[in-house]
Amino acid sequence: MATIELHQVEKKFGEVYAVRPIDLTMHDGEFVVLLGPSGCGKTTTLRMIAGLETVTSGTILLNGQDVTQQRARDRDIAMVFQFFALYPHMTVRQNIAFPLQAQGESRETIDRRVSEVVRLLEIEPLLNLRPKSLSGGDRQRVALARALVRRPTAFLMDEPLGALDAEFRETMRAEIKRLHLAQNATTVYVTHDQVEAMAMGDRIVVMSQGEIQQVGTPAEVYYDPANLFVARFIGSPGMNLLTGRYAAGVVSLPGENRYQVPAHWQAALDKQIGEGEVILGFRPEATLVGGSGQLAAEVYTDDLHGSYTMLHLAFNGDDQIIHARAGRSQIYPIGTPIRFDLDQEMVRFFDPKTEMALKPEVARG
Ligand code: ATP
Question: Could you tell me if the CB of 153 is within 6 A of ligand 1?
Answer without folding.
Answer: no
